[in-house]
Amino acid sequence: MARDLSTRLGSLSLRNPLVLASGFIGSDESLLRRAWEAGFGAVTTKSLTPKPRKGYDPPIVVDLGYGYLNAVGLANPGIEYLPRLLSLLPQEAVVILSIAGATPQDFRHCAEVGVENNVDAIELNLSCPHVKGLGMDIVEDVGYSLDIIEEVVSLGRPVYVKLGLTDTYMELVARSLDRGVEGFTVMNTVKGLAIDIESGWPILTNVYGGLSGPAIHPIALRMVHEIYGEYRVPIIGTGGVTGWREAVAMLYAGASAVGIGSYLFNRRVESIGDILKGIQQHMERKGFKDIASMVGYSHHR
Amino acid sequence: MERMSGGCCKGSHYHEAVVTRVDRRGDVANLYLDISLETVPGQFVMVWLPGLEEVPMAPSDDDPLRITVKAVGKTTRRLVGMEPGDRLYIRGPYGRGFTRRSGRPLLVGGGVGAAPLILLAKKLAEMGVEGVYVEGQPSGDVELFIREALDLGWEAILYTEDGSRGYKGLPTQYLEENLGGFTSIYACGPEPMNRAVLRLCGDRIPCEVSMERIVKCGVGVCGSCVVEGTGLLVCLDGPVFRADELLERGYPGG
Questions:
Q1: Does residue A196 sit within a domain?
Q2: Which member of A56, A159, A191, A221 has the lowest number of beta carbons within 10 Å of its beta carbon?
Q3: Interchain contact, A196 vs B221, CB within 8 Å
Q4: Distance (Å, rounded) from C-alpha A34 to C-alpha B15?
Q5: Chains A, B: CB contacts under 8 A, how many?
């Protein structure tokens, strides 16, 4: 018998735990619709900024075999595009708006447009590793991050903070929970470099990029485990989930939902059906009646 | 000669390729390279010039690899200006190419869109298939592959917009007048040409069209190459699409 995959992520009800991670096919309305139709429990938009951004010239992605390095440069059509971006989604689609900016005012403005357009939650991209002034340098400054968080939380929508791999993320978690965020997206990519040994050039036009995929999965899993262990908060576990096994491990570590990103490299989005099927079969085999009973399972072992 | 092998999911390293011969016609150049590549006609490779950009190119020959470039931006201008001995860096192939069918095919290429079609003609000819190759160009001085198609034993017809060589007009005129004489249609060209092909073929005849968009990541995630309104990605779902899948998903042309 097919198991019920529906789950709760904080205040959100999802038809299944898979969430389209920010940055993947989320800047075009027909692609976002296709992602929803492919079966995601929620879709996250590409990070939108107050003004449109062209992003970097290619190469913007390196396929390393054990992961991917990308520096897209926060290319996006700008927050004013949001109504159009959402226009092809059905009413019941669960939408997480990812936003980025340089100042608390930038974030507030983008979040306000999100509230006007009735998004279900807002994800703060404080941790993009490849755009100066719009990413890691924010999340590494806990005080500044909290200023941004306060501005956006005050609008009354569920807020998720996307964490990067920093020395201070547990401090940021503790202090942003005090400010009323609902949960966390764990984790963003990790800054890295790839060099082409034929030409000698760094491959990415931006030189440095964000590492994602299988290589970072154990790190993401550890961060989810650590945050859930301490605070029992809603977490979107994102990082190297490239099959149903990693998705199950994320739930066991404490994630209520599982972000899917690098899995989509070279794959059609419809193939997430394989992950859903794998989770379902695992539930049957192990006797889990619902997703909720899998969340944090490893903490009781 | 180094052979590049396909497969994109085991990590994709760049292959250094040296230009061995340049055949320039107006703002278009055929670059012959010192490597070969196993590819399905219509698939594309990413061509990287360090310090400039990486651009998608559908090869016009595979052994040795040949790319056909039109100067439109800084990177393609540099490519068109290349000389023997210059180096470029290639990964791929990527995407979905043309489906090779027996019968009597018509190949319609516009501008540098003719590139993957001449490779397709070569592969079809190797299968013993005989078809018609139609090429459209702005003028006769950028005629690209008519000679090669004739050498395959195919009929080859040139259309030029200015009438300076071949028939005056667009290559879709040939399609319009002769559609009934073929069992399948393959096309690659500028957007208006592709739309005209889709309009003429509809679901009446097996028809495949290669679409062009700005491909940035090449692996289906950045969304830059979406065919607007359809949710289809040129790099992953294409670049070759069946006419019916484009029309079903709302691509204008039907």
A1: no
A2: A191
A3: no
A4: 34
A5: 106
Instruction: State whether residue A25 sits within 8 Å of chain B by CB.
Output: yes
Residue B4 is predicted with a pLDDT of 56
In which element (H, E) is residue A282 found? helix A272-286
Distance of CA B87 to the CA centre of its chain: 22
At residue B7, does pLDDT exceed 60? no
The pLDDT tens digits of the residues spanning A223-232 come to: 999 999 999 9
Question: Chain A closest CA to B112's CA: distance in Å?
Answer: 21
Distance of alpha carbon A75 from alpha carbon A22, whole angstroms: 12
What average pLDDT score do residues B94-111 get? 96
Q: For residues B74 and B31, what is the distance between their CA atoms, to the nearest angstrom?
A: 17
Measured CA to CA, the distance from residue B254 to residue B243 in angstroms comes to 9
B55 with A58: Cβ contact below 8 A: yes
Total number of domains in chain A: 1
In this structure, what token pair is assigned to residue B233? 């990605």
| Partners of residue B55 in chain A, C-beta under 8 Å | 58
Residue A62 placed within a domain: no
Could you read off the pLDDT of A178-222 as tens digits, one per residue?
999 999 999 999 999 999 999 999 999 999 999 999 999 999 999
Domain spans of chain B, in order of start = 2-94, 105-248
Maximum CA pair distance of chain A? 55
The single residue listed with the structure tokens 């939408």 is A95
A25 contacts B233? CB cut-off 8 A: yes
B237 and A268 within 8 Å at the Cβ level: the answer is: yes
Q: Is residue A66 part of a domain?
A: no
Q: What residues of chain B lie within 8 A of the CB of A61, using their CB?
A: 216-219, 221-222
CATH class of B105-248: alpha beta
Report, as an integer, the average pLDDT of B139-144. Answer: 93
Q: Is A292 on the interface with B (CB under 8 A)?
A: no
Domain boundaries, position A38: 7-55+73-190+212-300
> Cβ–Cβ contacts within 10 Å for residue A215, how many?
19
Arithmetic mean of pLDDT, A128-137: 72
Would you state the structure tokens that stand for residue B111, as one six-digit string? 């501008």
**B9 contacts in A (CB within 8 Å)?**
63, 65, 265-266
The arithmetic mean of pLDDT across residues A246-273, rounded, is 96
- Which distant-in-sequence residues (6+ apart) come within 8 Å of A145 by Cβ? A126, A138, A139, A161, A172, A176
CB A264, CB A246: distance < 8 Å: no
Domain B2-94 class, CATH top level: mainly beta
What CATH number does residue A96 fall under?
3.20.20.70
